[in-house]
Amino acid sequence: MEKGIKLALARIRGLKVTLDQAAYNELVVCADKYYESYQDTAPGSVPRIETARSLFKKIGLDPTKRRPSSEALLRRALKKTGFYSINNLVDTGNWCSLEFLLPICVYDGSNVIGEVSARLGMKDEGYIAIDGNYLDLSQRYLVYDELGAMGSPIKDSLRTRVTETTQEAVLLIYAPAELTDEILQKYLDIFISRTVTFCGGELLLKKIIEIVID
């Protein structure tokens, strides 16, 4: 197994966040396809599920105790427990996360300053999460910008959360190093295309960032 992780990142501006459910409907269709194919299959035996689990193991998280968001979506699909529609942008991210079976985060780009990368959290480092509670990320891998910690595969931060006023977004796909750049770029391109289709906007940049884990 290769060391390290990858981040597939894109910035899109000029988009419009609404309560339109077109992307949510596609999420439901995707979930139904998983149910039809794997309803009698344990989640751990679904093809490609191990990719996100590998990612979590690399960053020091036990995927059997803290599920990757993509696996949580899959489990809801296989149990037919349904999903919540948040907004067109977040729903698009959840749709892609379920289809790719990789953790995906979407951030308000106006609150993401400078370059984005990932590293191990320093002592007493963390942020106020979207649930209003402080998330301690000391010695845990986090995504950061010039202002510091801004996200993680565990829980999104309040500072960079998407709202209905969001007009610029940072799209992020987490992956382990062994996933090829070709596949990850394909996923990113699909994510970008769907975001523009359902939310509008134009692409500012896209790239794959490799993070070495010692």
Quaternary class: single chain
- Largest sheet properties: 4 strands, antiparallel
Shape descriptor: globular
Strand order of the largest sheet: 2-8-1-9
Note poorly predicted spans.
none
The CATH architecture is: 3-Layer(bba) Sandwich
CATH top level class name = Alpha Beta
Counted beta strands = 9
What proportion strand?
25-35%
Please trace the helix and strand order, writing H or E for each element: EHHHHEEEEEEEHE
Total tally of structural domains: 1
- The count of helical stretches stands at 5
How far from one another are the termini? 13 Å
Structural class: alpha+beta
Helix content: 25-40%
Average of per-residue pLDDT values = 95
- Global Rg: 16 Å
If you had to describe this structure to a student in words, what would you say it looks like?
This protein has helices spanning 22-38, 49-58, 69-79, 88-100, 181-199; strands at residues 5-15, 104-108, 117-120, 126-128, 134-136, 141-145, 148-151, 168-176, 200-211. The protein has 214 residues and is an alpha+beta fold. It has one domain (5-211): Phenylalanyl-tRNA Synthetase, Chain B, domain 3. The strands form 3 sheets. Strands 2-8-1-9 form a 4-stranded antiparallel β-sheet. Strands 3-6-7 form a 3-stranded antiparallel β-sheet, with no helix packed on it. A hairpin with a 2-residue loop joins strand 6 and strand 7 (148-151). It is globular.
